[in-house]
């Protein structure tokens, strides 16, 4: 074997693609029921869009971007997430609506130069939602409803929703200072990354996954105790509404997400069976981002979720959907006359049914084997005798029964018998 897929990328083979279509279908279905419309944006963008939109101090921008120069020397980057591109498109095409919120969803591959492992790839696939234009906590709750509704719609059960508030430009600076002061006292027991974060963005320290750092966090001040009146009110309303729709959650004061642009509500949904990479999806409010990217001050909230991890969790729960892609019918010519009629009949039936055939001119017995391998429900047998009578013989592969059906009525017969399954 000379060529292999690059490390951290993988082929999704025909046996698996049905699961992906299923997952994408569930997501699009839930998103549409909440009034979201799909947006598709380019796979690559100017590098500075992500530097500005995600934050120069984030792990993504600092070490995980696939950045390259094109033939004119422009710096381009494969999209590592969707929000920056959605906001760019929103501003570029003036998608703002005078009345109300712009609700968008997207699905597609993202690229991060991360160390590949269980549930972590360099090309992975996200589905996401952005509600742009509402400061109301109802928007926060609805996006979280979509995330949980999607994961439940896949059939997942062992989900845990965590929420927190990251405050706003009014209350966060004061909290950041007291966090920095507290961290100064324990710097010697933190990892190198955290020591660097203490000065530049102390909140991100709380995001560290290293055990030796996490052990210290119990003693640190938390944002929730420092929220201004408005942020506190916002958080209370979110919690009230979650109670109202009976969506179970846990307040996690250490939940700060990796990206710099979040304000107020932030949330993640985890799966118990996934080990250290247990976050299936996460998001929250990002009221400052659109202005930071050159637009008018515009509140927004959204999330993204990883499809690989969602599908892994389904396997882990033994809840993967039935992914059979069996043909409805297999057409088997019995002789030369049948062979001649086959292109016309398959063409005709394929206007309505999934039809399979054998392309190798083999005897009927081999063709029946092939039909069984394909999992076809019915086999149509066509030979000289049938052509003379204007009929076909149809064998039900499950019951073994055989029926004679007029050629002119075969569609109706199949329709009726497939529907009754
Ligand atoms: P993030 O944009 O980092 O908040 O990621 C949102 C979701 O995308 C995560 O909860 C994961 O499900 C998924 N995800 C992020 N990075 C990766 C990766 N490298 N491989 C697979 N899934 C990922």
Structural class: alpha+beta
What percent of residues adopt helix (DSSP H or I)? Answer: 25-40%
Task: Going across the biggest sheet, name each strand in turn.
Answer: 1-5-6-11-10-9-7-8
What Rg is obtained from the alpha carbons, in whole angstroms? 28 Å
What does the model show?
The chain is α+β, with helices and mostly antiparallel strands. It has two domains: 17-171 and 227-317, BirA Bifunctional Protein, domain 2 (2-Layer Sandwich), CATH 3.30.930.10; 329-414, Rossmann fold (3-Layer(aba) Sandwich), CATH 3.40.50. It has 15 helices and 16 strands. It has helices at residues 14-33, 47-54, 59-64, 83-92, 137-154, 172-184, 192-200, 211-214, 229-244, 289-292, 307-316, 336-349, 364-374, 384-389, 410-419, and strands at residues 37-38, 44-46, 67-69, 75-78, 102-111, 123-132, 159-165, 250-251, 263-271, 279-285, 300-306, 329-333, 355-357, 378-382, 391-396, 402-406. Helix 1 (14-33) packs antiparallel against helix 5 and helix 5 (137-154) packs parallel to helix 9 (229-244). The chain is elongated and about 90 Å long. It binds adenosine monophosphate (AMP). Adenosine monophosphate is lined by residues 81, 112, 114, 119-121, 124, 126, 257-258, 279-282, 304-306, 308-309.
């Amino acid at each position: 074997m000379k060529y292999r897929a690059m490390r951290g990328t993988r082929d999704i083979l025909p046996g698996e693609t049905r699961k992906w279509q299923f997952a994408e279908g569930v997501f699009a279905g839930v998103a549409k029921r909440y009034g979201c419309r799909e947006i598709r944006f380019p796979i690559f963008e100017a590098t500075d869009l992500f530097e500005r939109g995600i934050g120069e101090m984030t792990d993504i921008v600092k070490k995980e971007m696939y950045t390259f120069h094109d033939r004119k020397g422009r710096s381009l980057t494969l999209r590592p997430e969707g929000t920056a591109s959605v906001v760019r498109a929103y501003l570029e095409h003036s998608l703002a609506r005078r009345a109300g919120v712009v609700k968008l969803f997207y699905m597609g591959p993202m690229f991060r130069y991360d160390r590949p492992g269980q549930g972590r790839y360099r090309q992975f696939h996200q589905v996401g939602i952005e509600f742009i234009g509402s400061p109301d906590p109802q928007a926060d709750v609805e996006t979280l409803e979509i995330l949980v509704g999607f994961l439940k719609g896949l059939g997942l059960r062992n989900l845990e929703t965590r929420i927190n508030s990251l405050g706003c430009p009014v209350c966060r600076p004061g909290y950041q200072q007291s966090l920095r002061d507290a961290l100064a006292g324990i710097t010697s027991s933190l990892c190198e990354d955290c020591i660097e974060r203490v000065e530049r963005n102390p909140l991100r320290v709380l995001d560290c996954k290293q055990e030796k750092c996490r052990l210290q966090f119990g003693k640190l001040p938390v944002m929730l105790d420092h929220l201004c009146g408005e942020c506190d009110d916002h958080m209370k309303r979110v919690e009230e509404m979650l109670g109202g729709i009976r969506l179970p959650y846990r307040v996690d004061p250490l939940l700060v997400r990796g990206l710099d642009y979040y304000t107020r509500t932030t949330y993640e949904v985890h799966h118990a069976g996934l080990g250290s990479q247990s976050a299936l999806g996460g998001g929250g409010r990002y009221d400052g981002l659109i202005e930071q990217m050159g637009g008018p001050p515009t509140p927004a909230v959204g999330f993204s979720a990883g499809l690989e991890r969602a599908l892994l969790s389904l396997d882990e729960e033994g809840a993967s959907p039935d992914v059979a892609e069996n043909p409805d019918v297999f057409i088997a010519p019995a002789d030369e006359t049948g062979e001649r009629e086959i292109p016309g009949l398959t063409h005709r039936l394929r206007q309505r049914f999934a039809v399979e055939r054998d392309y190798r001119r083999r005897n009927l017995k081999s063709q029946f084997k092939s039909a069984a391998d394909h999992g076809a429900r019915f086999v149509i047998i066509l030979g000289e005798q049938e052509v003379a009578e204007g009929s076909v013989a149809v064998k039900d592969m499950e019951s073994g029964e055989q029926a004679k059906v007029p050629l002119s009525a075969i569609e109706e017969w199949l329709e009726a018998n497939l529907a009754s399954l």
